[in-house]
Amino acid sequence: MEEKAAAGSGLHGRRSYPAVRRLGIAVDENDLRPGALRLIRELRPQWETERVQTKLFTDGITNKLMACYVDEGMADAVLVRVYGRKTELFVDRENELKNFQVLRAHGCAPNLYCTFQNGLCYEFMHGIALGPEHVREPQIFRLIAWEMAKMHTIHTNGRLPKPSLWHKLHNYLNIVRTELTTKASNPRSCCSAFALSGPGETFAESQTDVLEQSKQRQLRLRYQEVPSLEVLEQEVAWMREYLSQLNSPVVLCHNDLLCKNIIYNEAEEHVRFIDYEYAGYNYQAFDIGNHFNEFAGVNEVDYSLCPSRDTQLEWLRHYLQAYKQLSQDDRGGEGGLVSDKELETLYVQANQFALASHFLWAFWALIQDKYSTIDFNFFRYAKLRFKQYFKIKSAVMALEMPK
């Protein structure tokens, strides 16, 4: 039932990390408690099963999460995270495990106790999961900027990997193209629910099953609310050509820094990031622009909450000061001094890379809409992200780099 995961180096250089315990247990995502208790019996054999309490967290929209503990204050809590259905389509679990180990080694992640067949167990971090009302507060966003800079200055021992953004965007686009399109029963037909976006088009007349015709018609009408495949492909190609020329450094990124993935410990006056499924080497400006987008929230999205130019510049100044202080490459004696040109450059880069963030999570939401069992309106979320992309694109592209 148990095996050890071999320590790896891979993209993260030659440093080896302790083997992670693997348990041959599967947890039912629709009934977490029985499987979670089986895991706890392995991880905490000294705990009396009848004393173990559980708490289900409901904020997550990718995975399901349960805390197991015997202390009322949850000081000893073990978190059991069960992967969402079909998330292997867009999450590299082996890479997630490596990133978890790297971040832990640099003091940026909790202890990882084990992996199991469809999830992992790790240390509970004390504090509050932030909301949009918190991340705008200067005393908190200074801590977030510092923690992000700390993560971004984790270096490899070897060749710097390529940014993951383009691979992810093309992978998600391909999933949307192949997994979410509805083909007519006529084998000669190559039309999809996305492609059939014109008001005068119909599904293949050879379809004889009335119920199936009705379902396809409803699906077709639904997907008229999002851009056609042709438009999606054009925008992804344009973003790759344009954004890759902005010279944003490639660093180790979180890539999913929504508010609930930030834990604030007021007593110790620090923040920590959680959930590293999408972590990996990527453009510095993407990680920042993606975080700024998340000021709008997830359940009740309101883009008027996104930080103003002045707030962004203040945030970015704190970030750049920390980044320069923490960076191993800062040997010029300048400390954390930040020039106006550096600040304005990162402002433009972050806002333009925020466009790619909208597209990435819109694709993600379309995939989740088909497969996830989590109670969340993923299709509505996809529409909101696409809409915001096209709404702000012209204004964002009008931003000019400082001379």
TrEMBL record:
Entry keyword Lipid biosynthesis: yes
SUPFAM superfamilies in alphabetical order: Protein kinase-like (PK-like) (SSF56112)
EC number: 2.7.1.82
GO terms for cellular component: cytoplasm
GO molecular function, one term: ethanolamine kinase activity
GO biological process, one term: phosphatidylethanolamine biosynthetic process
Cited Pfam families: Choline_kinase (PF01633)
Top-level EC class: transferase
Pathway given in the UniProt record: Phospholipid metabolism; phosphatidylethanolamine biosynthesis; phosphatidylethanolamine from ethanolamine: step 1/3
UniProt entry keywords in alphabetical sequence: Lipid biosynthesis, Lipid metabolism, Phospholipid biosynthesis, Phospholipid metabolism
UniProt KW Chloroplast keyword: no
Family matches, as PANTHER family: CHOLINE/ETHANOALAMINE KINASE (PTHR22603), ETHANOLAMINE KINASE 2 (PTHR22603:SF94)
Family: Belongs to the choline/ethanolamine kinase family.
Protein name: ethanolamine kinase
Organism, as annotated: Pelusios castaneus
